[in-house]
Amino acid sequence: MPETPPLKSAAASTGLWLRLAGLLAVVTLSIAIYFLRHRIVELQQVGYASAFLVNAFASSSVLLPMPGLVYTYGLGALLNPALVGICAGCGATLGEVTGYIAGYSGAALIENRPLYERLLILMRRQQAIATLTVFLLALVPNPFFDIVGLAAGMAKLPLPRFVIATLAGNICKAMLTAYAGAWSMNWLQPLLN
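Above: the chain's sequence. Below: its structure in token form.
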């Protein structure tokens, strides 16, 4: 009669391999996006969809800076800034999930460490605070949000909580950026004529 520990060990080994494959996929995607970043400019022909796609690509590049908000700012001057903001925020949120997946995948590498265990306990006890923190950090333009996604994934913050908080923060940030682009163009246009 087979014992439970070998089955548990096999499941843990499979889980480790799946997490490492996820981490490898995120790193590969980030490198590909970085090297193809100059081709993203060609997407501006497709309007609102380009706001979604450019921000998705920009945000999915884990720890490599991409100019998604600059594009949103410029597009906000050309199209309806509210719709640009919503599309850009949704795209950025989709892209930020790669950081979460990388953290979730990378957690296998540090799962049995004391710091990880404390972080996991804190995130589980304080999910409302963790969700608010994710929202506030998504709201503020910063290149370090990837670290937030990594930490949320490592701490196993539920994916729906992470996505909702990130979506709310990213839409607010993108709408403010798009409106800033629209208002600045309205202000600058008389000076340029």
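The two ends are 86 Å apart (CA to CA).
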